[in-house]
Here is the input.
Amino acid sequence: MRFSFRAKNSAGKTIKGIIEALNESQALEILRQRDLVVLGLKEAAKAKKKGLEISFLKKVSDKDMVLFSRQLSVMVSAGVPLVQALETLAGQTGNKYFDGVIEEIANDVRGGARFSSSLSNYNKIFDQFYIHMVRAGEVSGRLDKVLVYLADEKEKSYSLQKRIKGAMIYPAFVLSAVVIIMVLMLTFVIPRITSLIVEGGAEIPLPTRIVIGISGFLRHQWFLFLAMVAGLIAFYMFLANSKRGKPIWDKLILKLPVFGSLFQKVALVRFTSSLSTLIVGGLSLPKALRITADVVDNTCYKKLILETVNDVESGRSIATTFLSSSRIPKILSHVLIVGERTGKLDEVLSKMATFYSGEVEGTLSNLVSLLEPIIIVFLGLVVGGIVLAVFMPIYQLASIQF
Here is the structure.
């Protein structure tokens, strides 16, 4: 059982913490042996509920995790005791909720709990990969090196996510600007011009009638337009975040032109890198695969990896399912077979992770280079099409008059 305590130490300072014991009497005895004067003691679950009851309203960003992991690794590698390092970091993240979580973890460790066990109480912040790597470091006595590795991995993952978001922000911004410009033109500019066209009595071509129709819809049925936009946003949120919608969304993004290939390579980087690390950490292959399935964060690949777990537990090769899947490159499947036969699966996975990381970098660079001219051409076609549709009847009207 876990007990939350409040006590005074030999220096007269009041401290709080978590201690593990079979019962309350044993917890009191352990605290007395540490020369502590117990002021309060109760089950940890009851104590934590009050302090973190609104934690679902809070979030810990990827950047917060990167900074925490790096700072903790530096301090522990420098010889600072883990509890002291955690206490130092508790007020420095800039995230009040995360500061409170780190303080709770420090209290747990001070009370005798394992660092990995305390992290597992906050599995919405620390994923299974993080927790199991810390546990492996504790067992092997190499926690300082594991923390350094985790910090490096978090930084790589964060950097990759930033580059992907950066590559997508530019087209999203330009497309949003195009939509805003079109709405303004169709709402304020086009009606004044089209009124002259209608009054002039010239024959109105089909493209112009379409533009006039859209303009009238935006002016008189604007609430329906806003409802459509809100509906699209809600539909996206459903697809991207719900249990029913995410499998559909994950399939769609893998089929996108250019971006689909990028997301596939990102999933392969996460798969190869995470599985290699967990195997080196001493986890059995089935358990490592289950954890990796969550790290990949794509339901299509998660399903494949979980099917692979069944293959491995049945004595078949890790590549059995992969060989029949179009989402796994054949080269990766064959390399995994070689790694199994030679007993160097972790090394093979590490090399493939490096290879796919390079592929992601190359794809991102090419994507950024190609998007700009493509978007400029798209913008020119849209705006030019509207202008042409409006001025076609004006030109015809001018020709009739002259």
Notes: Confidence is low (pLDDT under 50) at residues 46-56. Residues 208 and 337 are 62 Å apart (CA to CA). Residues 2-51 form one domain.
